[in-house]
Amino acid sequence: MYQKIPVDIKPTEILAKISYANSFDVDLCLLLRERRPPSLASMQYVALEVESNICAAKTLRGKYDRRRFKEDSQASSSHTKSQKISLEEMAKKMEEMLAELAKLGKEKLEYA
Questions:
Q1: CA distance 108 to 112
Q2: Nearest in space to 39 (alpha carbons), one of 7, 14, 3, 11
Q3: What CA–CA distances, in Å, run from 3 to 12, 13, 39, 110?
Q4: What is the Cβ-side half-sphere exposure of residue 110, based on CA atoms within 13 angstroms?
Q5: What is the DSSP code (8-state) at residue 2?
Q6: CA 56 to CA 31: how far, in whole Å?
Q7: In the chain, what are the domain boundaries?
Q8: Which tens digit of pLDDT belongs to each residue from 47-105?
Q9: How far apart, in whole angstroms, are the C-alpha atoms of residue 64 and residue 58?
Q10: Rounded CA separation 46/22 (Å)
Q11: Burial 48-75 (b: 16+ CB within 10 A, else e)
Q12: pTM higher than 0.70, yes or no?
């Protein structure tokens, strides 16, 4: 496309590369400029590479996040089960203590 621009209005290749890089979001623009491609055509090729790498990274990150969420939810469900067990044990202990207190109260009344 750059080659089809008439010579009298054609920007320099450096200006065209800067304008092209600035048309993307900040992260992609930075990555394109860091690669320092020698021509606009190679910058366009690099843009495709970088964009596909970013998409792949997002996909991998999504898989990692889903796996981590799954592991966290499994851990929290086992934690919840252990909490239920400990609550049941506490309830039993409380009942035993109340029964002991009731016995002590009856014994105290009998001695009085």
A1: 6
A2: 14
A3: 11, 10, 12, 110
A4: 6
A5: G
A6: 15
A7: 2-84
A8: 888 888 888 888 888 776 666 666 666 655 555 666 666 777 888 888 888 888 877 77
A9: 10
A10: 14
A11: eebeeeeeeeeeeeeeeeeeeeeeeeee
A12: no
